[in-house]
Design brief:
The structure holds 3 protein chains of 3 kinds. By secondary structure, chain A is an all-alpha fold. Chain A has helices spanning about 1-35, 35-60, 70-105, 110-115, 120-125, 135-150, 155-180, 185, 190-200, 215-220, 225-235, 245-270. In chain A, helix 2 crosses helix 3, helix 3 (about 70-105) runs parallel beside helix 7 (about 155-180) and helix 7 runs parallel beside helix 12. Chain B has helices spanning about 25-30, 65-70, 95-100, 115-130, 130-145, 160-175, 190-210, 220-225, 245-250, 290-300, 315-325; strands at about 5-20, 35-50, 55-60, 85, 100-105, 180-185, 210-215, 230-235, 235-240, 255-260, 270-275, 280-285, 305-310.
Chain lengths: ~280, ~325, ~270
């Protein structure tokens, strides 16, 4: 009996959360559509970023034919995933975390905390920068071009692996961002975190196998860039081992629980609870 | 049956803040060793509030009013004492508790800046899970009460400060909360707007029987809305009672305004002359002497009009704080 | 003149005091900054190892030297961004600065200079750590070290000028982020930020010589870690000076006309 009520409560909460996400999405899009100019600015920035990325790739391949075993179309695929995932992060994750940072500092977080919705859910879904999705578009185009060149090794199994890897990587990046932002409860001024993350994320432009072991470990377990970019790219280029995806799932669960714990700790500190 | 809706017993909030002096040497020292000081923002405060009351928290800046409010709304854990609001422990932040309260902060906005208020209202509906027909009825009722029909379609950033505050208040009451925590709701607004907001809150209180806790350093807010005031200074509770008895308790004087038919310079025999232009005289008379003196004035002078008032509450409060600071 | 020195010293002191308050933030910043060259270093070292020990004349040791010094030079050439200027102008803060008897650019230069003093100290342990990991190889002469110490401040000033001129354009119009982004992109490629310039094709190197960008990055780094002739060292300093002067002239012009336009039109 108790189990049934608890299950019902879980379902109700999930439904409410999804409804809320939809409401915020609508508001976010409505907001952004007002500024049509931003679309063109975003598009321009995406193209400039793409341009510099391509120049980098071209420069590398003017000195060599493969990089750590990855061929040119394969590296192009990595870049495509990098841009695609970057677009999602800029659209959905980063704006929410930046808003959380600001609100912790100026006290507006109080509004979110007096709502009958779980604080972590609320602060994670409020913002959605629609125009940042131009990166997703650009990334997809690059991916398609890369995949077309990789025809021999690409099939439905790879596509599925890619989708799963992408989803898990996304969740991991969210957890990581949340943990990083939660440090604002203690350190207060943490805008540099944005810088830090973008710097670390830039490492994902190249397959992490080129980095020295210690860095590779850091980019896998400390900052899940590997799972956000390299693993999906591995899925696309048929490099996945039998342990990669299950490992990703395990790590995702661990990070999710950890993020939740740290969030609650931060909240208790914010409310002045004696630890 | 319990009738108190808010119960605060021995509420305290202490903070440890780092102290540091200016200059390069002190800064380098602080890199290695930090020294702290304990600030008692709220120091052992107790009070009970019944449903439907509108209570004003008065006190200078930094007195502890906002801290008390935050402890009652669950935003801060008290260092001492256990508050009880609506039968819940606020700091546990249960959804059922949060659905029945609302927080309005005068200098902070929670509505989406670039969108019309209507969109933000809809978001509130989604957050609080208000059934749509009920939501629309409440929303339209409030819009009518505040006469903001034309403004709700405009983006918030295009509204004036006062208009924005109206939207804020509406947005925060759409879920018909039973307890309202209002922190300096009229700060920065012009007089007309302040009155408008006050009357809306008063109406909401009358219609729904909601309990209102209001902090303000505008006496006008408190005088207009609250019969009961709690005076806080330096974290301590100085007074808890009816506004009318505040003057009585803390001020031994009454203010008598006399309008004479002709100039008279000798009014100082009745009491201290605070202001005079010959015909309109303001006198300050000791409370016990007032009946006797006013009778004398009426008998001995050519009086056109005479009123007896408590001194302005501001003066009373100011004196209370001055006394308290001197003692502390 | 004495007033200027006093102002600079006081501003730097304030900057240092402020930075002490946000120690964690500075370390986050630092980590964010060293990730970038580490990535480049690893990529090019991988290529070097694949090609049998060196790429374009750079061994992994030389590359390590280049990118570790890169981190210091990068710290030194961080300046007030053109977006910062735009923000400042839009929010009316420029009006406040205009009320001061000193040109606002002095404030920026002085404040950032103070910040850099703090950063240099924070950088030293980081550099030592990086050196232990990546084992750089370089052998500078005394002249190189001296020229380097001067060149890093020269780089700072050159870059200040470039971005001040860009930022001041917002006195006329605010729809210029495209220009900013394009400039950043060009700088990325033509300054030696991504790779040492000698790894770029010849024609790119020739173009870059006439632009200010490589004098903010590649020149100072190479002055310390490369095999550079005395004439090249001094010539490089000369180019920095030239660009600082050109920059100053442009800043004055843009400022003069920009403020006139702004005061007539803006808030």
């Amino acid at each position: 009996m108790a189990f049934a009520t608890s299950l019902r409560w879980e379902i109700e909460t999930t439904v409410q959360t999804l409804t809320l996400i939809w409401s915020y999405l609508r508001i976010g899009i409505a907001n952004e559509l007002q500024y049509r100019v931003n679309f063109f600015i975003q598009l321009l920035q995406s193209f400039i970023a793409l341009g510099t990325g391509l120049i980098g790739l071209w420069l590398v391949f003017s000195h060599t034919t493969t990089l750590a075993g990855w061929t040119q179309p394969e590296l192009l695929a990595v870049m495509g995933v990098y841009i695609l995932v970057g677009g999602f992060i800029q659209a959905g994750i980063q704006p929410n975390m930046q808003r959380l940072m600001t609100e912790i500092q100026d006290g507006s977080l109080d509004f979110a905390l007096t709502k009958p919705v779980d604080g972590q859910i609320l602060v994670s879904i409020r913002e959605f920068r629609f125009w940042q999705l131009t990166d997703v578009l650009v990334g997809l185009v690059v991916l398609v071009i890369a995949v077309l060149q990789l025809q021999e090794t690409f099939g439905p199994l790879q596509a599925l692996g890619f989708a799963v890897a992408l989803l898990l990587g996304g969740v991991m990046i969210y957890c990581f961002w949340l943990m990083l932002t939660t440090t604002a409860f203690w350190l207060i001024r943490v805008y540099e975190l944005v810088n830090l993350f973008q710097g670390l994320y830039a490492a994902g432009r190249w397959p992490i196998s080129i980095y020295p072991t210690w860095l590779r470990l850091g980019l896998t377990f400390l900052v899940p860039v590997a799972f956000a970019v390299t693993v999906p790219a591995q899925a696309l280029t048929d490099r996945l081992t039998s342990t990669t995806l299950p490992g990703a799932l395990a790590l995702t669960i661990v990070l999710f629980v950890l993020a939740r714990i740290i969030w609650r700790l931060g909240l208790r500190g914010y409310s002045g609870a004696s630890a | 049956m319990k009738t108190t809706i808010i119960n605060a017993t021995n509420l305290s909030k202490h903070y440890k803040v780092p102290v540091r002096e200016a200059g390069l040497k002190a800064a380098t020292r602080s890199l290695f060793k930090r020294s702290y000081k304990t600030i008692k923002a709220v120091d052992d405060i107790s009070f009970q509030i019944e449903p439907g009351e509108v209570v004003g928290f008065l006190g200078p800046n930094g007195a502890g009013k906002t801290t008390t409010l935050k402890m009652l709304s669950g935003l801060l854990f008290p260092t001492g004492g256990t508050p009880d609001v609506l039968g819940f422990q606020p700091s546990r932040r249960q959804a059922d508790f949060l659905r029945q309260i609302t927080l309005v902060m005068g200098n902070r906005s929670q509505l989406a800046w670039d969108l019309p208020a209507l969109d933000s209202f809809d978001l509130q509906r989604a957050i609080y899970g208000i059934p749509r027909p009920e939501f629309e009825k409440t929303r339209d009722e409030f819009i009518k009460m505040l006469e903001i029909k034309d403004l709700v379609q405009k983006p918030i950033r295009n509204l004036s400060l006062g208009e924005r505050m109206k939207m804020e208040i509406v947005g925060s009451l759409l879920h018909r909360p039973k307890v309202l925590f209002l922190d300096e709701p009229t700060i920065g607004l012009d007089v007309t707007m302040q009155r408008r907001i006050r009357s809306f809150i008063a109406e909401y209180n009358q219609r729904t029987g909601a309990t209102v806790l209001l902090t303000s350093h505008y006496m006008a807010d408190v005088e207009a809305l609250c019969k009961r005031v709690i005076v806080i200074h330096n974290g301590k509770l100085l007074f808890d009672g009816m506004l009318s008895s505040l003057a009585e308790r803390f001020s031994g004087f009454k203010t008598v305004e006399v309008t004479l038919t002709q100039n008279n310079g000798g009014m100082d025999q009745y009491g201290q002359v605070l202001a005079s232009d010959g015909v309109h005289v303001t006198l300050r008379i000791a409370r016990e002497d007032t009946p006797r003196m006013t009778a004398r004035i009426l008998a001995e002078q050519e009086v056109e009009d005479l009123t007896v008032e408590d001194p302005p509450i501001e003066d009373v409060i100011e004196k209370v704080f001055a006394q308290n600071s001197a003692a502390a | 003149m004495k007033r200027y020195i006093d102002f600079y010293l006081t501003s730097m002191k304030i900057a240092i005091l402020e930075q002490f308050q946000y120690r964690a933030q500075n370390y986050f910043y630092l980590v964010g900054v060293i990730v970038e060259p580490t990535i480049y270093l690893v990529v090019w070292s991988t290529i070097a190892n694949q090609q049998g020990g060196s790429v374009g004349g750079y061994t992994p040791g030389a590359l390590a030297a280049y990118y570790i010094v890169w981190t210091l030079v990068r710290q030194m050439n961080i300046v007030f961004t053109p977006y910062g200027w735009e923000d400042r102008i839009q929010h009316g803060r420029l009006s406040m600065e205009l009320l001061r008897p000193l040109h606002p650019i002095h404030n920026d230069v002085a404040y950032f200079a103070g910040w850099k003093v703090v950063m240099i100290f924070l950088w030293i342990p980081v550099a030592v750590g990086l050196a232990l990991i990546f084992k750089p190889t370089f052998d500078p002469t005394w002249l190189q070290i001296i020229v380097f110490s001067v060149a890093i401040w020269g780089a700072y000033l050159v870059r200040t000028m470039i971005y001040a001129v860009l930022g001041l354009i917002t006195l006329w119009t605010t729809r210029v982020s495209a220009i900013f982004e394009l400039t950043f992109a060009f700088e990325m490629i033509l300054s030696g930020r991504f790779v040492p310039m000698t790894l770029m094709p010849e024609w790119v190197q020739r173009i870059a010589y006439y632009l200010p960008f490589q004098w903010t990055f590649y020149f100072p780094i190479n002055a310390l870690v490369g095999q550079v002739r005395t004439s090249e060292l001094l010539g490089g300093l000369g180019m920095q000076l030239l660009w600082i002067l050109i920059g100053l002239v442009f800043v004055r012009i843009v400022w003069y006309f920009g403020v006139r336009h702004f005061s007539a039109v803006g808030n």
